[in-house]
């Protein structure tokens, strides 16, 4: 079996902050929203239904864990969870904290405007706040 | 416990085509994309993590069942699965068949343009093709 290799664009646009049982949990390099990405570490998977039933259940558990932590940390009005993948076909699930005064609210974040990179300290601070919210 | 009552906007913008174990499966009244919506029939639920763990597993199973059927029926390039809910807060999951020549590809469908209603015969035909794909 081929090993799992992270897609180049996911590698460029996000940074790994935690390895879960199934997924690599990544923080998007875009400061406009608290934006996490779950990437199941399985080769050749594009759709949720390409995963085995056990991996589907694990992905659900990890989405719920991450969504709950992000809600707790941010107090967001709504958590958006989406597997889109029209551009990057490697299966990845967005988990995004949305608030009523954020860019493009209540529209979706995907395809909207240009990313605004974090300053390094702000990225590290966001990362640590998220990891603390898991505890 | 309060009974489940479907949100008014979901009722207006989509039509029930099948009741699954957890969800009301609805077809959006927008002919631009084959667009299904799963609504868990539980009161006062806004986020996936508001569901019980058993209901979360059921929702995953139903998403996979519906996504697989939609892929089989349409031959779509990508199935988009998303729980957004910034406008309608009642938990609902979009399952949409996307193709490389469809409106706003590869951008998201949410918040894009105006809906294009089906003619009645075309709606019934789409509904029957979807239901057949479950078999």
UniProtKB/TrEMBL annotation, chains A, B:
Domain of life: Bacteria
SUPFAM superfamilies: HIT-like (SSF54197)
Domain HIT per the UniProt entry, residue ranges: 36-105
Sections of the chain in a coiled coil: none
Protein name: HIT domain-containing protein
